[in-house]
Amino acid sequence: MYALRLSARELHSLSASEIEEKTFEGVKRMLRRSTAVAESRSWANSLPVLADDLIRAGLDQIEVLIEYSIPGNSERADAVLAGTHPSTGKDSFLVVELKQWREARLLPDHPGKVDVTGVPGRKRDHPGPQVEGYCGHMREKLACLHEDSEALRGVLYLHNALREQVEDLYKNADQRYGMVFSSSERNQFTSYLRSRFTPASGAASADRLLGSMVRPTRSTTQLSARQIARRSQFNLLREQEEAYLLALRTAEEARADDHKRIVVVTGGPGSGKSAVAVELLGAFMRGGYNVRHATGSSAFTETLRSVVAGGPEQKGLRDVFGYFSGYTTARRNDVDVLICDEAHRLREKSDSWTTRKNLRSDRPQIEELVNAARVPVFLLDDHQVIRPTEIGSFEEIQRYAKQRGIEVRHVQLNGLFRSGGSVAYDAWVKGVLRMVEAEPFVWEDDGAFSLRLADSPSEMEQCLRELTERKRSARLTAGYCWSWTQPGDDGLLPSDVRIGDWSMPWNNKQDKAFGGAPPRALWATDPRGLDQVGCIYTAQGFEYDWAGIILGPDLKFHEGVLTTDNRKNKDRNLPQRLPAEESDTYIRNIYKVLLTRAMEGAIVYAVDPGLQKHLTGLVPSLRNAPVHVPVRSQG
Description:
By secondary structure, the protein is of the alpha/beta class. The chain is built from 17 helices and 24 strands. It folds into three domains: 4-210, Trna Endonuclease, Chain: A, domain 1 (3-Layer(aba) Sandwich); 220-413, P-loop containing nucleotide triphosphate hydrolases (Rossmann fold, 3-Layer(aba) Sandwich); 419-616, 3-Layer(aba) Sandwich (Rossmann fold), CATH 3.40.50. It holds the Pfam family SLFN-g3_helicase.
């Protein structure tokens, strides 16, 4: 995706205001919302300079993709140039990050940040690693870039600054994917452009880039522990890199002065929290730290133990993955670093209904975890708390740390790496669930993500099964609105989820396979999981290519208002005695989680007739608009 595509000559023929207006409209179509004034102004100030340089270089037929969306996430490059390489005769692409800054310097105490003179707030992300990250993601995701190491390069162009005013940004700059140019080197920049492109038209090259097969995004559950321990597995971008560097620096400081500190990384669904967790786990292993990984989800932890550390040669690594409740008896600073992923699932206490009476304690679970590690790292989403006993929020961690006099360091992740990186879909989900003030909008596929409305659960199931035949992973989930009965003597799971003449069993509750169904922990990753309906507890923390979501009768639409009805919910963790306002928040959070598990597309169906009718005006019908599965490489 991109906001605007045109040749260098066409770009040069536009006035600054025309460039701003056309780019603004293009970005608005992509995001389904307007952009900030400062960003809009930057197009008028920077893009004409780039156009001038291309003309001066004799490259007026080069194709320019403005606000190019990096495949698989929500990041956008200012411009990507497409054309033919003068030495190889093959496609050549250049990512250009444009900055209006006049003066900037590194901030030694804030890795990945720079101090920019004349900019509100001054502290900004270092654009060099940003460009490198864009290039890394493109090389990883796009098949057209896999075989040719010369095809892609990246530059940072500070067109308003003299070199001496931004000298810091040249330090350790990657000469392939983060080369720096300032206004002092405008002639060198045009020479560099000529070294990357011939004067020939770049239209065909741009077509090949935009039409390239896209490699599926790797999940954390597809990696082995040895892969994680051996080398980096993900290209981290912007705030992800900031969080990673902050946690590393905090651990180094804590090891040096033996002073406890807390790191909190917050972000929405698919913002890259688990990728940061995996990168940190590997880095701390390689650095000789005593590191552990914990979650509050049996499905997530057991999948990590089974898939990530499941090989015979990796059994010793299984103990790295544990639970929040596993630190009740830990001594102070038993581990150097404790990575608490999905930390929104922190409970008030580690005790559960299965805890023996003589072992029960009133000690808060957060206290146990903070006590156990010199540096606990909490990764969480405040809007994924789904039951009253869960207290994992940034505010709660801050409150506890303040009481204990412990420093908290925080990074907010704003990127989107799920849902194909579609910012529009993220906004649609929040709008349709009335989690924001903005009204829900009519969905149109944006090239990154597809959304359809099924007329029935059977139509949804049929489509999901067809998608698996096309090498896509797919799962069907529902709100917890049907009873969950025990298996009978026939050795099969009962078909508890019944809607009209369609039925399907809930996922297997057991820790071992039963009746052809995988263990509950492997429902999201075992292909047999498509034969059962997943619930919030087996889906949270996981992702798959396509998601089918049944909106249960606890979600209703009447006279223009979306409401929740906890009386229709069968989850004992959401008791009927809960105040309506409280249960309302949990139910909306649950559906937000279920609606944001997919990487490529989602199919929805609502049991409530009013809500189903409402959705017909917002979502294309599966019957009238069959899903389009984009071509992708399987490598």
